[in-house]
Design brief:
Layout lengths: L7 H5 L3 E3 L6 H11 L5 E12 L3 H9 L5 E11 L10 E2 L5 E3 L2 E3 L4 E4 L3 E6 L1 H20 L2
Length: 145
């Protein structure tokens, strides 16, 4: 299910390009095993770190919970250690807990950022709409199997 036309500004609008944060695959895997052993992980590509253009109240609430007003959107799941996300589906995360080079760490998962990515701003309303669309698309693709 392709994204609705109303989302096109998000996908085609201005974004800051971020070169690969861990270009060396062996180093990336060593760091994953050494630093995040036992935690669920998900390898993703075609990723965007979305900075929430939110009210200060929301930002303060996230900060109180040890989180940052950023989420990750990845257009391609390569592998999910717990099988939650199908290969080739896209995924949205919960807010950022920590960014450690090529590891976007949310409350539940370590996302390994493969290849180049982007950074972009979006409103929480747009992110919620995109998230609802992503969930529906992932459900549809799983029911077709």
């Amino acid at each position: 299910m392709p994204p609705p036309a109303t989302f096109q500004p998000f996908f085609t609008g201005p974004a800051e390009r971020i070169p690969a944060l861990c270009p060396d695959e062996d180093d990336r895997l060593r760091r994953l095993m050494r630093s995040y052993r036992g935690q669920p992980y998900c390898l993703v590509s075609k990723w965007v770190i979305v900075e929430l253009d939110a009210e200060q109240v929301l930002i303060d609430e996230l900060n109180r919970d040890g989180l940052q007003p950023r989420v990750l959107f990845a257009r391609r799941v390569i592998y999910d250690s717990r099988g939650r996300f199908g290969r080739e589906n896209y995924v949205w995360t919960t807010p950022l807990k920590c960014l450690d080079r090529c590891f976007f760490i949310s409350q539940n998962t370590v996302y390994v950022l493969i290849g180049d990515g982007q950074r972009q701003k979006a409103s929480p309303d747009l992110v919620n709409s995109l998230l609802a669309h992503a969930r529906a698309a992932n459900r549809d693709s799983q029911s077709e199997r």
